[in-house]
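Lay summary. Proteins are chains of building blocks that fold into shapes, and those shapes determine what they do. In this project we predict the shape from the chain. Here is one chain we studied, written as its sequence of building blocks.
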Amino acid sequence: MNRRKFIRSSALATLSGATAFSYLAACTKKTDESNTPAESSSPDSFPLNEITIDQLQQKMQSGELTSHTVTEMYLKRIQEIDKEGPKLNSVIELNPDALAIADSMDKERKEGKVRGSLHGIPVLIKDNIDTADKMMTTAGSLALEGHHAAKDAFIIQQLREAGAVLLGKTNLSEWANFRSTRSSSGWSSRGGQTKNPYLLDRSPCGSSSGSGTAVAANLCAIAIGTETDGSINCPASINGIVGIKPTVGLWSRSGIIPISHSQDTAGPMARTVKDAAILLGLLTNADAQDAATTQRKGQVLKAYVQSLNADALRGKKIGVEKSFIKVHEAIDGLLQQALDV
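And here is the predicted shape, written in a compact code that computers can read:
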């Protein structure tokens, strides 16, 4: 089943009949007297919707797409629905060098050099991770506005070496939610409030809310978040994507604004388990600046993709608590109509 249709139907199943009816009516509403469906100009028509790393590589290898074209498409989409339109507010800053990086990756590909799975793939990075470029690293705080890191975080060095295109920085709960016990998930003084792309007035969960929303809304191919306690897993769950918090020491923590020495780690956020596994393995390396990674040297698996098993859930039963399903028969027709769009 299509990931987005599944999430939409699941969300509707938790609404009251009246609320669901109003929502579905809005989904199927006509935009004007010409009876043009609202979805005709919807972000759902985006050509890169739900595209995977493997599919992007195939299209770039065949010449159907280039890294420049893909990067340009994501930049346009960010402008259309993150900065304008519904204003998801998940991207706090764009990399002015993104297209130049993409061009250099296209040049290498033409010369027969492909660095690996991430060659030419656009990635968004949470704004508490150092990037030694024209982008700031602020943890979403106005207190650090104007701060440019002197060097890349170790995982960013690896991303660059893998040929990834650093598309921009994502919004977050300011200071990765280490600001207040009553703070709003996804809000920062520098970036404002990140929105949930499925229901704009619902929480996107934090603190890696910008990365979670951006991946769910197809503003990038993959993203990186960070977690102390739930900051990857919660936005991944709420936004219907895959998030992995690696064991501390699997990914380097150097160059990341910290909270807890014993719990902090960055991790992958993606739309599929395979894409998350690809990114997880590529950034698993020992860093002399992080003792936890050197202690695990030689004890970690890097080719996580090889461990994936499409039949792992075959024969298993999934229980559903029927009392939570409140979609009435009266809206079944509208529900189907919305899912068929």
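What the prediction tells us: Residues 187 and 193 are 4 Å apart (CA to CA).
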